[in-house]
Amino acid sequence: MGLCVMCTHCLSREEPVLLAELKPGRPQQYDWKSSCETWSVAFSPDGAWFAWSQGHCIVKLIPWPLEEAELGCRTIERKSCSTKADTRGRGGAKEKTLECGQIVWGLSFSTREQDGLQAPSPSCLILATGLNDGQIKVWEVQTGHLLFNLSGHQDVVRDLSFTPNGNLILVSASRDKTLRVWDLSRDGKQVQVLSGHMQWVLASRGHRNAAHTWPNPESIPLAFPRPSCGACDSALLVTASYDACVIMWDPYTGEQLRTLRHGPLHSALDYGTDIHASSLRSVCFSPEGLYLATVADDRLLRIWALELRTPVAFAPMTNGLCCVYFPHGGFIATGTRDGHVQFWTAPRVLSSLKHLCRKALRTFLTTYQVLALPIPKKMKEFLTYRTF
């Protein structure tokens, strides 16, 4: 797929195309307490691994990219097994099945450090899994070995986020109304507990060690532009609401910048779903931070340009629960209620020079610092995402 300069009209002609669908094979009986939903999917920051919460307490670790034969718009069945590593692999990397013992709700990758230096070896990649019973299990990706079993939460661990600088600080958010901070460099020591929320807590990943939380489940934070995916600032926060609205916020001032409403797109796409009763399930930023992908109960995958209030591309899908962009762009992975994973094409975009300058400045300037600069008002509005 070719590159194009940021252009809404160009993007609108490239609807997401289904490349492949992975379907778990289940040859054995599982505990009745388990469920089949894929609640979370994740790519490692370098794009070399894909983690799939496969349902039935299993996480599948798949070396990336998939083989060309698998990217042929067909369904591939992947059987779950109890071994740590499967025989299939490419370049020395092998698929692994992690038996977590509980339903897996959250996934987050990070890298380990050796002797104060970040090691390039894939053996230094780790994956944290948030479980239904409040436990957090941390695994070494290359070997599939369990490194830590973190205890403290009293309910489902719904979201996990590592700080992006490789210092092994993990933030977890739970339905027990607490946010907990863990230091894996100190044998998984719990270093802080943030409590006092009246409702479930969910966390959103941010830049420069920022983790933002919202106590109200009616407005769930789901996405920041992530530095590991190529977005270099934390000037935007996006939340998804149960009323099918996506809201863009300034995380420094708390100001609502824009609302994207999930309305009917076309009469031909009317599947009989009540759009007003349709819940948003997931939202994620594209790597360059100019577009969003959303998954909702109205059975559509949508792609939005931040400067617009209507989708610029969409594709029909069923039972969607989560979505994530590939770190280097080009496609989106979605998880479904049936435990499947689907991979969709996504247009590659070259950011404009002015957006690149904005990203560079917002890496180290807060909204308040931008507003204090002796520059024209229109430039301040652009740098603070009041205009695009």
UniProtKB/TrEMBL annotation:
Repeat (WD) residue spans along the chain: 121-149, 150-185, 273-307
Pfam families per the UniProt record, alphabetical: SOCS_box (PF07525), WD40 (PF00400)
Pathway terms, separated by semicolons: Protein modification; protein ubiquitination
PROSITE patterns reported in the protein's UniProt record: SOCS, WD_REPEATS_1, WD_REPEATS_2, WD_REPEATS_REGION
SMART domains recorded: SOCS, SOCS_box, WD40
Sorted UniProt keywords: Repeat, Ubl conjugation pathway, WD repeat
Keyword hit for Repeat: yes
Domain SOCS box as annotated: residue spans: 352-388
Gene Ontology annotations of biological process type: intracellular signal transduction; protein polyubiquitination
Full protein name: WD repeat and SOCS box-containing protein 2 isoform B
Lineage: Eukaryota, Metazoa, Chordata, Craniata, Vertebrata
